What we know:
This protein has eight helices and eight strands. The protein is of the alpha/beta class. The protein folds into two domains: 2-65, Heat Shock Protein 90 (2-Layer Sandwich), CATH 3.30.565.10; 87-204, Rossmann fold, CATH 3.40.50. The strands form two sheets. It has a five-stranded parallel sheet with strand order 5-4-6-7-8, sandwiched between helices. It has a three-stranded antiparallel sheet with strand order 1-3-2, with helices on one face. Helix 5 runs parallel beside helix 6 (149-159).
Amino acid sequence: MSFRDNGMGMSAETLGKLFQPFFTTKEPGEGSGLGLSLSHGIILEHDGTIRGESIPGEGAEFIVELPIKLSNEKSAISNQDSTAIEPTKKASILAVDDEPAIRSLIRIVLTQDGYQVDECEAPQEAMEMISKHKYDAILLDIRMPGMSGLELYSAITAKWPKMAKRVIFITGDTSGKLMVANDIPCINKPFNIAVLKGTLLKILSQPN
């Protein structure tokens, strides 16, 4: 399938960033930069590809290629994967981040995979939500106003010690490299959807 327009087109630099989460050429407040990255993730999950082609001043074209699978092949794949996928389908996730776009991306992507996702922007609200609901994993931003993610992590683990191995940090600075080096679950902004899902699956596969 291909989709083409006759607009202003895109530069090679823009084409190279099209599928990065949060990348947008629109003015602040006019676009989240999530549409194409979400489309990219959905198509990849169906073993397909999407690419953009454009020449400045001559419009743009997006090409989507999806494989044709026989019905019995689909059934075999479904039966084979059902055991591995089912435990995560009911997993409950809390996303704590003061950036609405980050929370929105996490909620949309994980909900599509069958997760139950709650979100909040304030550390105190997170503590209240955790006290009322049992979460299988928490995605926690490091830099937030008022209380940092590390301070919130200390408060969470002091009250609920079993959550210590159920937290994945999110960061937009160099602290992520230090955490990864020390085997602390952490993903860097802007993060790849596949990295987000892979890190989460690794946490959920651990025994309680």
